[in-house]
Amino acid sequence: MEQVRVQVSRHPGATLFSVLKDVFGGHAHGVPALWRDTVRRALPPRAAAAVGPVLGSRACWIPDRLALLHDLGASDMRTLEGELAAADPALLAEEVAAFHSAGPTPSAWRPLLDDPVAFLAAYRHVVGAAAAAFAPLWRRADALIGREAERIGLAAVTGGLDGLLTGLDSEVRYADGTLELPHSCPSHLTDLGRRPLVLVPLASGYTASMYGADRDDAFWIGYAVPGLGRIAGRRDEKGEAAAPDALSLVLGPVRAQILRALPRRPTVSEVAHDVHVGVSTATYHCSQLETAGLLHRERHGRQVHLHPTERGTALTELLAAPALPFLNTGG
């Protein structure tokens, strides 16, 4: 992990595409009902009908320009809309046809292949209307994404990327130095190589998850930004949490509390009680921490106790102090 270049992208296009997939495809990304209805009401009906089958498809592939992710470094929605407006309809149709050349093209893509110009115009209309409706919500999410960028940066400089990736709430799983994908990717790209790992926090829904493994310039993972409930109206049982310390920023509050409890060698049930979660939830987090090498289990009679590893103790001590406030040094 020390050789991996990790970047963070505050990407409005990824979040908007996640919202559109949820609007047209059901509740796959967990977008709050009010947000989903706000965007749905703003969509032009005829354009939405034309592009709906593509956005509602369960297929995992779509051209990067249509997914609004051609430029992973973009941070402005107007720039992304400009790129979409400049896209060549014929080239997009060729890309879709080439991807499906080994078998029949799904019916959802027929409108694009039959009339690329009309399809792309409808797509731009839908994206523009959705972006305008979602813009106030995106602005509210800015602080959350900034906090997440700080968390990732802290993990990178303190050697905590293993723990961060292990705890990432994404369909891409990390274990033993390997990123495990739910679908296969091109064989020549199964090694990360010199590509950066780009993390894209999504301010769209509680279960939002996307990834891109078929680019030769980057591997990116989109996941629900932590704390989304703060701007979506969802609160946890204890209300708003206090300002997190560095350990919580790197591992998340539940796993940070578990690590802090390890010196007294608790059982999973005792940990679950202490951190106010169910036993199954505590078991899951303990398993992830064990995979990351931060704790191990020892049986004592009928009970299994949790013990810190040297690595877990070192990380806890290193990040024991409260996190420093984020300083804006820009002019």
Describe it for me?
With 331 residues, this protein is α/β, with parallel strands linked by helices. The chain contains 15 helices and 8 strands. It folds into 2 domains: 219 residues, no CATH class; 84 residues, Arc Repressor Mutant, subunit A (Orthogonal Bundle), CATH 1.10.10. Strands 1-4-6-5 form a 4-stranded mixed beta sheet, sandwiched between helices. A two-stranded antiparallel sheet has the order 2-3. A hairpin with a 6-residue loop joins strand 5 and strand 6. The protein is elongated and about 70 Å long. The two termini are 34 Å apart. The C terminus is likely disordered.
Q: In a few lines, what is going on in this structure?
A:
By secondary structure, the chain is α/β, with parallel strands linked by helices. The protein contains 15 helices and eight strands.
Overall outline? elongated
Q: What portion of residues belong to β-strands?
A: 5-15%
Order of helices and strands: EHHHHHHHHHEEEEEHHHHHEEH
Number of domains: 2
Distance between the termini: 34 Å
What fraction, in percent, of the residue positions are helical?
A: 40-55%
**Largest β-sheet summary:** 4 strands, mixed
Q: Would you identify the regions where 5 or more consecutive residues have pLDDT less than 50? A: 235-243, 321-331
| Averaged pLDDT | 85
Number of helices: 15
Could you say which structural class the secondary elements and strand pairing correspond to? alpha/beta
Please give the radius of gyration in angstroms.
22 Å
Give the strand order of the largest sheet, numbering strands 1, 2, ... along the chain.
Answer: 1-4-6-5
- Oligomerization category of the chains in this entry: single chain
The tally of strands reads 8
